[in-house]
């Protein structure tokens, strides 16, 4: 049941700290504090490149995975949504890594992409929540997200569990490729192990999220902005809003806004930005200034280190604990999903069963 929550989505949002912790328990050895992945039938050190493919939220998780694998493991990565990857026929060396991400393990587009990658003799590694699924049977290795069953059609906890697995995979790949030493691994693992308690603190910000929701609920269009690994977080926020509130939302890389969508901005188009204090904070803030100068109303998700400067320009903000840059996209996902949920509650839509959507999309 819903355990006293109003909807499954609300219950599942509150499970973020738990599922991040459970997923880490499966992947991090408590004694050595090192990432321990299951035995793989291939060597991560000799993979020449990775191709990531998935649909919807799982695709956004993959985009964050790409930032990590490129930056930390120095692994060349290609990524596309499964329905496009399937027909792209990318040139791939045998022995490359096909990285598939899916909550259900049954999504027809992702399964078709898996099969077309397999024909190219790449190793198939799938990040799946349902471990006895069709994709699981057709993969060389499965890394399980320990999110438990997700009932709400809009994905929430599966997404942060996917990110947790991708973070661990990045650490293991970086170690294998010699781009991360023991000290570096210790730093990243500590940041991950710290996450469940930081994630639990996010829920103390409920009142601030509900204030933002009042503004968003009145809008017809909403623009979501983020840079670097916060760009896919913005995309996740925009998708969730569209899915369950039927408000049109679009995510843009914050720096790309001035190349077009800035013409949309006025008081009626709220701007939701994800701007924690990372090396991209200053750049993001100057993009937000540009939007504000055109009359945009800024609703900003930041952290304790960014709060003072954000408060100088934002109409409202949500302040999260400051965490290591590496795990910031995982933490920042939680309040953007909460925002969509609170807007849906205000609008009175069918949160768990939005119109036209099914939990698992088994047609191409
Ligand atoms: C988003 C959502 C969808 C799914 C997508 C992939 O809230 O629910 O975008 O993320 O259909 O589904 P899976 O992960 O089962 O392959």
Automatic annotation (TrEMBL):
The catalytic activity, as recorded, is: D-fructose 6-phosphate + L-glutamine = D-glucosamine 6-phosphate + L-glutamate
Species: Acetobacter malorum DSM 14337
Question: How is the quaternary structure described?
Answer: Homodimer.
Does the keyword Repeat feature in the UniProt annotation?
A: yes
> Which subcellular locations apply to this protein?
Cytoplasm
User: Can the keyword S-adenosyl-L-methionine be found in this entry's annotation?
Assistant: no
Q: What is its EC number?
A: 2.6.1.16
Q: Name one GO molecular function term.
A: transaminase activity
* Root EC class: transferase
The SIS domain extends over: 40-179, 212-354
- Summarize the protein's role: Catalyzes the first step in hexosamine metabolism, converting fructose-6P into glucosamine-6P using glutamine as a nitrogen source.
Highest taxon listed in the record's lineage: Bacteria
What are the record keywords, sorted?
A: Aminotransferase, Cytoplasm, Glutamine amidotransferase, Repeat, Transferase
Active-site residues annotated for this sequence? 359
Please report the name of this protein according to its UniProt entry: Glutamine--fructose-6-phosphate aminotransferase [isomerizing]
């Amino acid at each position: 049941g819903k355990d006293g929550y109003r909807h499954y989505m609300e219950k599942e949002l509150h499970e973020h700290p738990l599922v991040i912790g459970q997923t880490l328990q499966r992947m991090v050895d408590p004694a050595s504090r090192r990432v321990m992945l299951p035995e793989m039938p291939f060597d991560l050190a000799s993979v020449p490149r990775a191709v990531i493919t998935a649909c919807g939220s799982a695709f956004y998780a993959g985009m964050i995975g790409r930032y990590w694998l490129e930056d930390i493991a120095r692994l060349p990565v290609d990524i596309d949504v499964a329905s496009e990857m399937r027909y792209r026929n990318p040139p791939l060396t045998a022995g490359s890594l096909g990285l598939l991400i899916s909550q259900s393990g049954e999504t027809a587009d992702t399964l078709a992409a898996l099969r077309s990658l397999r024909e190219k003799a790449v190793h198939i590694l799938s990040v799946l929540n349902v471990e006895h699924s069709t994709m699981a049977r057709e993969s060389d290795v499965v890394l399980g997200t320990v999110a438990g069953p997700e009932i709400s059609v809009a994905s929430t906890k599966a997404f942060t569990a996917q990110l947790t697995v991708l973070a661990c995979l990045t650490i293991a790949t970086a170690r294998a490729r010699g781009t991360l030493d023991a000290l570096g691994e210790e730093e990243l693992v500590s940041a991950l192990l710290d996450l469940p308690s930081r994630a639990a603190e996010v829920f103390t910000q409920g009142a601030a999220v509900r204030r933002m929701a009042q503004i968003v609920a009145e809008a017809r269009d909403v623009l979501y902005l983020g840079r670097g690994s916060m760009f896919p977080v913005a995309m996740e926020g925009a998708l969730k809003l569209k899915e369950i509130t039927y408000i049109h939302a679009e995510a843009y890389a914050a720096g790309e806004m001035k190349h077009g969508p800035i013409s949309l901005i006025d008081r009626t188009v709220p701007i939701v930005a994800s701007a924690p204090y990372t090396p991209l904070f200053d750049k993001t803030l100057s993009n937000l200034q540009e939007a504000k100068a055109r009359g945009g109303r800024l609703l900003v998700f930041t952290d304790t280190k960014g709060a003072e400067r954000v408060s100088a320009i934002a109409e409202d903000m949500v302040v999260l604990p400051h965490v290591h840059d590496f795990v910031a996209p995982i933490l920042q996902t939680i309040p953007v999903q909460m925002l969509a949920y609170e807007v849906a509650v205000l609008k009175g839509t069918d949160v768990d069963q939005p119109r036209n959507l099914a939990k698992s999309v088994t047609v191409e």
